[in-house]
Amino acid sequence: MAITKPVIIAGAGPVGCVAALRLVQAGIPIILLEGAAELPRTLRASTFHPPTVDMMDELGITAELEAQGLICRYYQYRDRRTGEIAEFDLDVLREDTKHPYRLQVEQYKLTQLIWKILERDYAHLAKCLLNHMVKGVYQSADGVEVLAWEGMQERLFEGSFVLACDGSDSAIRKAMAIQFEGFTYPERFLVASTEFPLETKFDRLAYVNYVSDPDEWLVLLRTPSVWRVLIPTDPKIEDDSYFLSDRWIQDRLHHMAPHDADYPLAHRSIYRVHQRVAKIWRRGRVLLAGDSAHMNNPLGGMGANGGIHDSWNAAEKLIRIHHGEAMDPLLDLYDRQRRTICVKFVQEHTINNKKLMESKDPDVQRKRQAEFMRACSDPTLSRAFLLKTSMIQSLRDAAAIT
Ligand SMILES: Cc1cc2nc3c(=O)[nH]c(=O)nc-3n(C[C@H](O)[C@H](O)[C@H](O)COP(=O)(O)OP(=O)(O)OC[C@H]3O[C@@H](n4cnc5c(N)ncnc54)[C@H](O)[C@@H]3O)c2cc1C
Fold first, then answer.
1. Is any ligand 1 atom within 6 A of the Cβ of residue 302?
2. Does residue 47 have its Cβ closer than 6 Å to ligand 1?
3. Among 29, 208, 272, 341, whose CB has the most other CB atoms within 10 angstroms?
4. Does residue 165 lie within any of the structural domains?
């Protein structure tokens, strides 16, 4: 059946925007409903893995995004105790991807770019509405109705399918009473960013670095304008303002790299970390994707990337339905492919990654660094490691699920 009624996408984060552009490029009409009055500019994901960049390339937006970002070919695991640096070169994936590097660019640049393209080039197929907070969905045998609030006014939108890309607090997931199973870590994470050239403080710093020592671990990420430092906090202290204070942040940064003055701070925020997966990702004509379907700790940058892989998969299923394939088997396949991968790979990998990074056991730390050193110096091991961490393997595994 050709899809003539619009696919309604709730949420214009990276996941909703990618789905929207993919669908209109296939000739399918969409309505993109964003609850906020303007596209959120919060500093969240800033790493896009090679297969995600391949997808952006298919959308025709890689050049424009790369012009606003940084190409990160190498990334590192650093042990401050021994001074060892395990550096991985993503170029070993050149046969596996057209883009053997991570693209460091803030997620809001992706959403702003796609929104602009939708309004400029696809106005005949795409209705993009800000300030429309989705509240509920009604389904019938041949369509959906979505209730949204525009300020205080209720509006009803008719469509063919719904993609719930409305984030971790998903109104649609809640309205459909879908359980969000998993747990929340007791500690919060602090992200501080500084314009200070931290590369002057370290030998050969890459744009993405996982750093550990016997007492603490942290992640150091470069964006075009700042260095971002991600640090876990002490779960015994409840008060966020303690960790958000200049003193605490300066102490952590000075512990990381001594300096004779305070570091300039451009931005700071603290957030909770969850490992959760929705119990089902499809109900009738509604599909969950991105943070509305799953959340994980940000180590390894798999949240937005995994979410974009969901919306890519969901859009592909809808395009096949548009070209005449039967709806039910394809929508069920979406659930099987993406949910299975999420549980079996992303959740497992991110949970283990965190355990490994935070362990204070010297034996675990030595073994961990030794494994990284061995893997990065052997092209075969290196490729196997990078296929996993860059999420190419999980896409292949998903495609193999029938
Ligand atoms: C500090 C930090 C660093 C991170 N770094 C990375 C990284 O490097 N790489 C990575 O892959 N991931 C990273 N993540 C995770 C990543 O940010 C999320 O996984 C990603 O934003 C999920 O995208 P999304 O589109 O599903 O949801 P969101 O980005 O949350 O977007 C949801 C959108 O829906 C809108 N919305 C919400 N409710 C409604 C409603 N009822 N109706 C209409 N609109 C609604 C919101 O305003 C928002 O625009 C990081 C997260 C944090 C907190």
1. yes
2. yes
3. 341
4. yes
